[in-house]
Amino acid sequence: MGLPALNFTNVPNVFFERWVEKLSHVELKIMLLMIRKTYGWHKQRDRISLSQIVDYTKSSRTRISEALKKLEEYGLIKKTVAGTCGQQQSVYEIIIESSNNSDQHQNGGGGGGGG
Predict the structure, then answer these.
(1) Residue 107 contacts by C-beta under 8 Å, 6 or more apart in sequence?
(2) Total Cβ atoms within 10 A of residue 90
(3) End-to-end Cα spacing for the chain
(4) Whole-number mean pLDDT of the chain?
(5) Which secondary-structure segment (H or E) carries 62?
(6) What phi, psi does 114 have (nearest 5°)?
(7) Taking a C-beta distance cutoff of 8 angstroms, is the pair 52, 33 a contact?
(8) CA geometry: angle 109, 93, 47, nearest 5 deg
């Protein structure tokens, strides 16, 4: 079965160029989930529960927790905990650089247009 032509999520090129080869299997699956849940719905962040990540990655909670910490260390995601004790939920946000061409134009101004 092929992929539908018009059903897609934009993924920044730098993700493929810089990060795919560096990320572990679990880290990569988590990032793809987060990209889908955010960029795929034109949002910068979304509440993604640990159980959603477990279901998506089919990985253990221990491995997922380790991967999430590494992704934070890499500066790819930011974790915020919200809610009252016992009802807390983690919110994961993809960290967005000021320019999507930052690898190619490190001296350039932030956020110009272009196609």
Answers:
(1) none
(2) 15
(3) 31
(4) 81
(5) helix 61-73
(6) 140, 155
(7) yes
(8) 150
What token pair was written down for 40?
A: 């795929």
Copy the structure tokens of residue 35. Answer: 């990209």
SS percent in the chain: helix, strand, coil, step 5? 40, 10, 50
Of 33, 28, 2, the closest CA to residue 15 belongs to 28
Return d(Cα 33, Cα 69) in angstroms, integer. Answer: 16
Q: Residue 86: is its pLDDT beyond 90?
A: no
Contacts of 76 (CB under 8 A, 6+ apart): 19, 31, 94, 95
Report CA 74 to chain centroid distance, whole Å.
Answer: 11
Task: Give the confidence band of 108 by pLDDT, cuts at 50, 70, 90.
Answer: very low
> Two tokens at 68?
């999430």
Confidence of residue 111 (pLDDT cuts 50, 70, 90): very low
